[in-house]
Amino acid sequence: MIKIYNYGEVPNSEIFARENISANVEDIVADIIADVRKNGDKALFAYSKKFDKAELTSLEVTKEEIDEALSIVDPEFISIMTEAAQNIRAFHEKQVRTSFVINDKDGVVIGQKVMPIEKVGLYVPGGTAAYPSTVLMDSIPAKIAGCPEIVMVTPPKQDGKVNPVILAAASIAGVDRIFKVGGAQAVAALAYGTQSVPKVDKIVGPGNAFVAEAKKQVFGKVSIDMIAGPSEILVVADATCNPKFVAADLLSQAEHDKMASAVLVTDDKAFAQAVSDELEAQIPLLPRAEIARASIDNNGKIIVAEDNLLLAIDIANEIAPEHLELCVDNPFDYLDKIKHAGSIFMGKNCPEALGDYFAGPNHTLPTSGTARFSSPLSVDDFVKKSQFTYYSSAALEKVADKISYFANKEGLSAHGKSATVRFEK
After folding, report:
1. 30-56: string of b/e by CB count within 10 Å (b at 16+)?
2. Of 79, 96, 259, 355, which one has the fewest beta carbons inside 10 Å?
3. Per residue, what are the HEC states of 213-235?
């Protein structure tokens, strides 16, 4: 049963459960990465047999396999994913940055070039659930950014095939190449390359503790999007809300995995109890009831900020949740008061699942309080910038002495000399 606390009984910094990577996981992942670096495809085949129970003879998904998947998947689901992709594309197209040039001084041109990352690796989980939504959310912004090649990795099933809905989503999103490999070994393959899997410049996408640790260990060799922890939701709701709806929203995240966290912050103690009762009624009805039960019992919390909705919002800001539902009347009255959240769902008719699948904003979000300083995945994650400077001789001569003066103040006389030497008699 979910625990109910009065505000102040549990530190806000401890509201969401944190997944601590053990030294054992670190060592296992380090060994896997070293093995893949040394043995390439041979190691990937071995890990597929060990972890996925799949006997593979090749790693890359063929066009025929993609066509077969498209023929198998329910046409209605294809249509829904296509519409979702359109929504995602429309939202992320607004994020596109452009290069700029400044040339308002004689003989001086400065500017910035915005360029797509050349090779992007996309990790798509394939464990307790398949996530075609992740394919759409993580690859469409990369396509909009102009990335020339998107390489997807995802674990195979025991029959050696990839879940067809994953392949269908990849086709809709325009993924360029797909490989049947998962886990830490997939991250290693993307970071260092193998005989089959190309080395990429950036790895994005969620995964379990081993995937997260692998991304952490290869960071620096490649870029990554973030180190994502277990999924989390915080609902701010008042007594005018329907407790059945709020309970359902909490369970939408609790069913992800046993480490997921679902938290309600409310200004009404009776409403808190009503939501608790609803959770008990709804959990047994879920196909993933065992997972949801563990999540709610171990990590779920209801915080009562008695008769003070603004305090509830302050609590949300301190926690900085991945998903924040603002289940109140007139939610836009409170939007400016939200300072730290990955994605904000406004009002009583905006379940978090709307953002997971369909609305358009990205669902790859900062977790574990990192929304205080980081942002949802966006087109910005798939571009890099170079700056450029041009000065004519006359323009440089005007400022050479100033450069020299500045450089000498830092004790770097050669820096200054490199400017003034051009004008010595």
Report:
1. eebbebbbeebbebbbebbeebbebeb
2. 79
3. HHHHHHECCEEECCCCCCCEEEE
pLDDT of residue 23: 66
Question: With 60 as the cut, is the pLDDT of residue 128 above it?
Answer: no
- What DSSP designation does 332 have? G
Write down the pLDDT at residue 129: 65
How far is Cα 98 from Cα 100, in angstroms, rounded to an integer? 6
CA distance 347 to 363: 18
The amino acid present at 85, given as its one-letter code, is A
pLDDT digits 0-9 by tens, 310-340: 999 999 999 999 999 999 999 999 999 999 9
Nearest CA to 59 out of 151, 132, 140, 129 is that of 151
User: 278, 322, 325, 352: which one is catalytic?
Assistant: 322
- 23-39 and 183-192 helices, crossing angle to 10°: 50
Give the CA angle between residues 332, 343, 287 to the nearest 5°.
115
Catalytic residue among 92, 256, 323, 363: 323
Give one DSSP letter per residue of 53-81, joined into a string: ----S--BPPHHHHHHHHHHS-HHHHHHH
Q: How many CB atoms lie within 10 A of CB 350?
A: 17
Prediction pTM value: 0.92
pLDDT at residue number 179: 98
322 is catalytic: yes
Distance CA 314, CA 311 (A): 5
Strand, coil or helix: what is 175?
coil
Per-residue pLDDT, 109: 98
